Amino acid sequence: MSYHFRQALLAMRGNLTATLATLGTMTLTLLMLGFVVLLTQNVGRTLAQLESQVEVAAFLRDGADGAGLLTQVKALPQVREAVLVSKDQVLDEMTRDYPYARDAAQLTGNPFPDTLRMKVERVQDSTVVAASVSRLSGVQDVEYGAGYVDQTVRTLSAVRGAGYVLVGLLLFGTLLNILNAVRVAIYARRNEISVMRLLGATRSFIRMPHLIEGVLLGLMAGIVAVAILAPAYFQLAARVQALVPVLPIISDPHVIWPILAGMPLLGILVGLIGSFFATGRYLRELE
Amino acid sequence: MIQLKSVSLEYPVTKTLALDDVSLHIKKGEFVYLVGHSGAGKSSFMNLVIKRTLPTRGMVHVSGEPLTAYRGRRTAVLRRRIGMVFQDNLLLPHLNAYDNVAFALRVTGVPQREWTGRVAAALRTVGMEHKKYALPMQLSQGEQQRVAIARAVVGDPPLLLADEPTGNLDPENSREVLKVLQNVNLRGTTVLMATHARDLVESFRHRTLTLRRGRLVRDDPYGGYAL
């Protein structure tokens, strides 16, 4: 094994330009990949938070049986939780945000109705729940922020989907990258490989240095990518959180570091697969 | 050791009939010349024996087994039983003589503790032990070829194929190399040497197979160059 390891290092040093080019492109690819993964994680968390905050509000007529209606809506399978908020409680809430509301209420009376507030299992359930609740006797009006919520969820879902597609394409590109690098290394050693074949070397003996080369390139690219991405992400996360506190930016190291640690592992995997295919193809061509 | 039965070899791309209905038997321990002009089929014959190509028709047996029995990993097994020497010696330029010969032991998985003795013995056989640390570029062509022979025999193969081993050498070095090959043969290795060096074949007589346009036209047990 030490012989194969030495041969791998010699091959990398012998084709230094190709090695550095591959290392550079792999690092960039893993860097972009890591960034996209972190972005999609953050988008996912934002989506989850948004979905958890989506509320269907049913405004009740005066004299409606609030407790009875509460029981009915809780029985709906799409409703995760439901509370009955009295008109006085609504006024208190509005006064916290808009202090003049209480003064206005004293002049004209409390304009706010008793309200049933429901949280749904999924954002998509909002429409169904709203439709069901609006048919109940005693319900005057139902609101669930349809236009705003739907649009936001669609946009963020599209961003997440695009992120995953980009990750897939980047991975594929990295694989092709390493495949080419190993082919260049094999081509540079073709005379030696021909001699090996004629002397009776097995395929695995010939392959081993190139597999090690692929693994080393992937590992180094992953480590460099993490070294760049980690501080950059934590700094960016801190700035975004300071600017837009409502966004649930992931900054817990216990969540981030497993993602970042996956990058060198992914680099190793891609390096191994790419070099495996490259050596296989070339050795078949040699035969 | 090598047996061909009605073997033909046609290269599909060029539609060239490299070997045409060749039948022969080379026994263990023989020293055999394979002679013929360029394009007669000598190299094609050698490529068949080491399974670089397969016959279009007929059967090839090497070391008692049909060539088709050597599949996949067994191709490496076949080639370990055959030492090869080429016109261009194919020594690795970055390795000295010792390491070039040891390379053959490394790629075939021989334990490292055995290398020193075996490499020394192989280099002694070819008279190159005193230059074991020389790089190929520090050796003459004849010396390089002798190191190549040492590499071919260090694994004690029962069969040695030499494809124009003196092709790039002057007469004096050619004779030296041929003496080395004869020495190897005397130790029990079957030697098959492809050549068109008439003077060598006439001077050092051994069984001679003559190929012309892919056909075996002569099998002379007492040697002699007759084309």
- Alpha plus pi helix count of chain A: 10
Strand content of chain B: 25-35%
Biggest β-sheet: strands ordered side by side in the sheet of chain A:
2-3-1-4
The helix-strand sequence of chain B is EEEHEEHEHHHEHEHEE
> Largest interface here, residues on each chain?
A-B, 15 and 20 residues
- Give the total of beta strands of chain A: 4
Unreliable stretches of chain B, pLDDT < 50, 5 or more residues?
none
Chain-averaged pLDDT of chain A: 83
Q: What structural class should be given to the helix and strand makeup of chain A? A: alpha+beta
Walk me through the topology:
The complex is a heterodimer of chains A (287) and B (227).
Chain A (H helix, E strand, L loop, with lengths): L1 H13 L1 H38 L1 E6 L5 H9 L4 E7 L1 H11 L2 H9 L6 E6 L4 H10 L4 E5 L2 H43 L1 H10 L3 H41 L9 H34 L1
Antiparallel strand pairs in A: 1-3, 1-4, 2-3
Helix pairs in contact in A: 1-9, 2-7, 2-9, 2-10, 4-5, 7-9, 7-10, 9-10
Chain B lengths: L1 E10 L4 E11 L4 E5 L6 H8 L7 E6 L2 E2 L7 H7 L1 E5 L10 H11 L7 H11 L15 H13 L5 E5 L7 H16 L3 E6 L2 H6 L3 E6 L2 E6 L7
Parallel strand pairs in B: 3-8, 3-9, 6-7, 7-8
Antiparallel strand pairs in B: 1-2, 1-4, 4-5, 9-10
